[in-house]
Specification:
This protein is mainly beta and 97 residues long. The protein is built from no helices and six strands. The chain has strands spanning 19-24, 27-38, 49-55, 64-70, 74-86, 89-96. Strands 1-2-3-6-5-4 form a six-stranded antiparallel beta barrel. Strand 1 and strand 2 form a beta hairpin.
């Protein structure tokens, strides 16, 4: 599992538009990294930032911890918060502070 305390926004910005696999009860589904945004001040060394993921599948995710996988980053355990529909997809946010 990747150490989230060492991750910085720069690890995610080149991955915008790429697919992350998320483990769900029914198996796996795809989430596309739609945005990677800097946030203000942070206590964490890597700075504060948020990630917005989109899911166009029928199944919607509840707010909880999920394990996401990307070949460049490995497995990440992130708290995903549903934001609501964005176009034809459902948006989820993970915040690093």
């Amino acid at each position: 599992m990747t150490d989230l305390t060492t991750l910085e926004l720069s690890a995610f910005t080149p991955l915008v538009g790429e697919t992350f696999r998320v483990k769900v009860e029914s198996g796996e589904m795809d989430l596309v990294l739609h945005e990677a945004n800097a946030l203000g001040m942070a206590v964490r060394e890597g700075g504060a930032f948020s990630l917005i993921f989109l899911n166009s599948e029928e199944e919607q995710l509840a707010q909880q911890l999920f394990t996401l996988h990307h070949p460049a980053l490995g497995d990440l355990q992130l708290l995903l918060v549903p934001l609501g529909p964005l176009g034809e997809a459902m948006a989820y946010e993970a915040v690093f502070t």
